[in-house]
Design brief:
signal; about 400 residues; EC 3.4.24.-; about 45% helix; Aminopeptidase; 2 domains; alpha/beta; globular
C-alpha cells in the first residue's frame, strides 16, 4: 500500500511539473513550444511499468488505450470507422472458425485552422508494442519503444498548443506489432485511413533516450532524408538542442529497422529518428531509469520544429529513388568506429570484430580523402555498416 501511495504521489508531481512547464513554454513562442521533460518522463515510466507488462497482447491493448486517451485529451480527430482512434489488426481464424484480433493501431488527425493544403498529410509515428512478459520476467521496453510513443504524444501536444501556422494536416500514429515483422504498420499502409498518395512525409521514431551501444555519442540519427527532395537541407536548419546533435545517415546503412519500412516501400519520403540500439536492446533491463529524459524531450522538440518546417513548404518533398550519400554520413560512420575502438576492451571484442572495425575505419578515412564518393564506395559502405550493426552491437 505504501509503495502504491508513493507511486501515485510521484505521478501527481510529474503531471504538475508537466502542466507547469507547458504553461511557461507557451508564452511568446512563434515556433512549437518546447516539449517538457516531465511529460516525456511520465509517459515512459507509465508505459514501461509493471502494470503494462511489456505491452504485448492484452497489455498492448492497454498501451493503445493509453495513447487513445492522450489523443482524446488533446481533442484530436479519430480517423477510423465509428469515430474510433483504434484500427483493429485481424489475427488468424481460430479452431472454431471465429475471427481473432492480433493487435490495435492508434491514429488521430489534426488539421490546423487555415491550412493551405488540409488534404495533404504529414505523419508522426512510433510503435507501442514490445516483447511482453515471460517466465523470466517483464521486458519493459522503455527505450524500445515507450520513448518513441512519448515523442508522438508530446509532439502532438506541442503543435496543438502552439500559436503557429501549419499548412498541412498531421496524423499521429502509434503502431502495434512492430516486433512481429512490422505487421501493424504493414496493415495500416494496406488499409490507410487517408489515401496514401496524400501522405507527403513520415517521421518514425524508435529507441530514443539511450545511445548506440551505450557509447558516449550525444546524437540522434536521422535516416532516410536522402530520399526526400530538400529534406537534408531542411533538417540542417532545424535547431534541436545543444545536448543533441542530429546526424544524417543513409537508411541503407541501417537496413530495415522499424515502421518506416512500409512507407519506404511505397516511395513516400520519410525520416527514421533513433539514438541507436543500446546494449540492453530486447532484454529485461531496458527500463525507464536508464532513459535520458532530457534527450527525448530535446529530440521531440526538434522533430516538432521539423514538422512545421516541412508542413509549411509550398512544395512537399518528392521521392528520390537513387540518392548519393553525403560525406557527413561517412564522417558519422568514422566517428562510430573511433568510439568502438576506445571501448574495445570494455566490450571484450573478439579479434575478428576488432579487425572488422579497423577495416571499416580505414576504408572510411580513405573515402573521405577522395574528391568524390564512387558508387562502389557507396555499396561497400552500405554492406559494411549493416554488418557492423549486426556483428558488433
Amino acid at each position: 500500500m505504501k509503495q502504491n501511495i508513493l507511486y501515485s504521489f510521484r505521478v501527481l508531481v510529474l503531471i504538475t511539473l508537466c502542466v507547469t512547464e507547458q504553461v511557461f513554454a507557451q508564452a511568446g513562442e512563434e515556433t512549437p513550444v518546447p516539449v517538457p521533460v516531465a511529460c516525456v518522463r511520465r509517459h515512459i515510466e507509465t508505459l514501461a511499468s509493471d502494470e503494462f507488462a511489456g505491452r504485448s497482447g492484452a497489455s498492448a491493448l492497454m498501451a493503445a488505450e493509453y495513447v487513445t486517451d492522450q489523443f482524446e485529451k488533446l481533442k484530436l480527430q479519430p480517423v477510423f470507422a465509428e469515430e474510433s482512434f483504434l484500427q483493429v489488426i485481424p489475427g488468424p481464424v481460430d479452431e472454431a472458425g471465429n475471427s481473432t484480433t492480433a493487435g490495435w493501431n492508434v491514429t488521430a488527425r489534426w488539421t490546423p485552422a487555415g491550412a493551405q493544403f488540409p488534404n495533404e498529410y504529414l505523419i508522426v509515428a512510433a510503435h507501442h508494442d514490445h516483447l511482453g512478459s515471460r517466465k523470466s520476467g517483464i521486458y519493459y521496453g522503455a527505450d524500445d519503444n515507450a520513448s518513441g510513443v512519448a515523442m508522438v504524444v508530446e509532439v502532438a501536444k506541442s503543435l496543438i498548443r502552439s500559436d503557429i501556422k501549419l499548412d498541412r494536416s498531421v496524423l499521429f500514429v502509434s503502431f502495434d506489432l512492430e516486433e512481429h515483422l512490422l505487421f501493424g504498420s504493414r496493415w495500416w499502409t494496406a488499409h490507410p485511413p487517408v489515401p496514401l498518395e496524400d501522405i507527403k512525409f513520415v517521421i518514425v521514431a524508435d529507441m530514443l533516450g539511450r545511445s548506440l551501444g551505450d557509447l558516449p555519442i550525444d546524437s540522434v540519427f536521422l535516416c532516410g532524408a536522402e530520399h526526400g527532395s530538400g529534406v537534408r537541407k531542411t533538417v540542417s536548419k532545424i535547431p534541436f538542442a545543444d545536448t543533441v546533435q542530429p546526424v544524417l545517415l543513409s537508411d541503407d546503412f541501417v537496413g530495415l529497422r522499424s515502421d518506416y519500412g512500409p512507407f519506404r516501400d511505397r516511395k513516400i519520403p520519410f525520416l527514421f529518428a533513433s539514438t541507436g540500439q543500446s546494449r540492453d536492446y530486447h532484454t529485461m533491463v531496458d527500463t525507464a531509469d536508464k532513459i535520458d529524459f532530457e534527450q527525448v524531450a530535446a529530440i521531440s522538440t526538434g522533430l516538432a520544429r521539423l514538422i512545421v518546417a516541412i508542413g509549411n513548404q509550398q512544395k512537399a518533398p518528392e521521392w528520390i529513388e537513387s540518392p548519393e550519400i553525403d560525406p557527413s554520413e561517412v564522417k558519422a560512420i568514422l566517428e562510430i568506429c573511433r568510439q568502438i575502438d576506445e571501448h574495445a576492451v570494455e566490450w571484450e571484442l573478439t579479434a575478428i570484430q576488432k579487425f572488422f572495425v579497423d577495416q571499416t575505419r580505414s576504408r572510411a578515412e580513405r573515402i573521405l580523402s577522395q574528391k568524390t564518393i564512387t558508387p562502389e564506395d557507396q555499396r561497400w559502405l552500405t554492406r559494411t555498416t549493416q554488418m557492423l550493426l549486426f556483428t558488433v552491437f
